[in-house]
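Page 37, top half.
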Amino acid sequence: QVQLVESGGGLVQSGGSLRLSCAASGSSLDYFAVGWFRQAPGKEREVVSCISSSDGYTYYANSVKGRFTASKDNAKNTVYLQMNALKPEDTGVYYCAAVLYYGLVLTRERFKYWGQGTQVTVSS
């Protein structure tokens, strides 16, 4: 079992930055792909980013490419999502999710473990 806890959300003005953290317990993330998803009110949960297990490959949705950066600290068993140049359309609940897999995983249904989510609100 893997428990994931997100933190770092909040209210920020357009153009600002936030860093989300996803702390894992119960198992090392060394062999897990970790994804970041967001869900805006009335919309489907969508993938924002994914970081693969050991080789560190990353994926970013076109809407966040160049602004968001995912990283992993194996010593802290934590994955981060650095979000810069935030826009009002980035508003939503952000979730991290993990699945035991070597490469990138972009399909929501494939992730087995989910955090509780953290709210990000970007004001214009």
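Page 37, bottom half:
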Amino acid sequence: QVQVVESGGGSVQAGGSLRLSCTTSGLTFSDYTFHWFRQAPGKERGGVACIRWNGDVTRSLDSVKGRFTISRDYAKNTLYLQMNSLKPEDTAMYYCAARLYGDCSDSAADFWGQGTQVTVSS
């Protein structure tokens, strides 16, 4: 059974940092492209960052470039999202999603996590 589990969310003040983690089991981690998505109350879910299955292409939302960094650790089967200089508008539920040999231009996913809440206060 495939499990995708996010952690690391919390409440921080503007300008602070958080590192989200997404641990996986039941799938071959190195075969999957991973996305971080987020959804704020009353808004549609949108892509934040993506890293391909082989790690050679990453994409980030323009509004987080220079502040957020996506990375993956193949030895730990874990995806990360380092978030620095957080702003109140980054407040959302953050989700990890996996797509078998996916491309970062395609937001479809085979597996989703349950999400982790990030709240940034001004």
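Margin note: The chain has a mean pLDDT of 95.
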